[in-house]
Amino acid sequence: MAVKIRLQRHGKKNFAFFHIVVADSRAPRDGRYIEQIGSYNPNTNPATIVLNSERALAWLNVGAQPTLTTRRILSYEGVLLRKHLAGGVAKGALTQEQADKKFADWKEQQDAKIAAKKQGLDKAAAQAQKAARDAEAKVNEARAEAIAKKKAEAEEAARKAAEEAAAEQNAESAESAAQEA
User: Which domains does the chain have, with CATH numbers?
Assistant: First the structure.
């Protein structure tokens, strides 16, 4: 029986997430599986991966073959590195303490990369938000200037109309005074 470590699709259209499962290669993609060892959500940035690395390593050691995407996930989580280091320990190329130190150093670097990416994304989001606020402030200033200009024109028109009405009234009163005299 060929055993595969692969992804099992869940979720809705255009918003899928995946379970990482160990299954018989003859079983349907979303069908029966032997064991669920994690989940993968590519909809977040960076992608969310929850993996039981001990069980994944155990299945790799007994011959389970990961698919290409699952191989990348296992590599990203360090499971394949741990398998490689365990092979070195078994051959006597290095001791278990050296292997543990190498893995810890690698994991620290990986965590630093992930933290830097998250920080960069947060910084970019803050800059985009600041740029949007600045653009909105410019638009609001332009609108306020346009409203003030219209108001000034309306006041000017009202003042001219009042002057013309006053001049007309003065002319009428002068006319009526001339007729009375």
Answer: 3-94 (3.30.1320.10)
